[in-house]
Amino acid sequence: MNNSFDSSLNGFDYKTIEAIAKYILDRTKHRPKLGIICGSGLGGIAEQLDKSDVFPYESIPNFPKSTVVGHSGCLVIGNLKGMPTVCMKGRFHNYEGYPLWLCAMPVRVMKLLGINTLIVTNAAGAINPSFNVGDLMIIKDHINIPGFAGNNPLRGKNEDQWGTRFPAINRAYNPELIKMVKGCVADLKLTSFVREGVYCMLGGPSFETVAEIRALHVMGADAVGMSTVHEVIYARHCNIKVIGISLITNKCVSDWDSKEEANHEENIAVGKKRAKDMESLVQHVAEKLNTGA
Length: 293
Ligand code: HPA
Fold this sequence. Notes:
alpha/beta, Rossmann fold, five-stranded mixed barrel, 24% strand, binds hypoxanthine, guanosine phosphorylase activity, Purine nucleoside phosphorylase, EC 2.4.2.1, Pur_Nuc_Pase_Ino/Guo-sp
């Protein structure tokens, strides 16, 4: 397959994405309607899919490889509580050296596989002092810090097949779906540790300084991480509805006298503990989306 990188486009052209989607659709009978991106330590969601077909990223033409511990890389396509679903088990990050458009590119592949709704999950550090390690946060909005400096996945020539040059990103996290997710939280009796808040993306891989955490707090961020926002921008650009859920794996250090340090291994360990609740929630959401309830 030709790798049609076009520098003015700042990404693969529509035809290249079509060819990737065709490669996958030719090798599975499933026709997914829901996409899920599994965050650090949350790959267990993909294991809940029935009758799944698994595509390691290295087997898919033009897919990057995921290089992060805790993110094994494959697309898993099957049924989640009856809902035809494609899961990205492992995602791509800017800090791995991939440009944002390439990190977000699989969202366009999922669009051409047929999805109309995307659930993005991630591990995040708490900035809001009332949040606890192990909380889940329904994302109600985001702050795109790389975007402040012009690093946006949509930078470059726009391809109108995907969407408009200047997409609106307010209401990116679908308000009706947020209500539905809250209903699922209540059904599963998870309310005591589920919050709602603003997710802020930084490029990483270094964690934040104390001064940065204080600045983000003043800006209105409740949690911080190194992913998600570029995927959501790509999804909204091509009119995919978005639900976002963060797992709070650590509290960010906001005190200069503190001896604590953020640590990726610890984040993965916390992820394992609460991952089951995240899995149940995502399953229940998939069931509701499938039945239209
Ligand atoms: N900062 C940035 N990214 C993260 C954190 C954090 O504290 N925790 C998990 N991902």
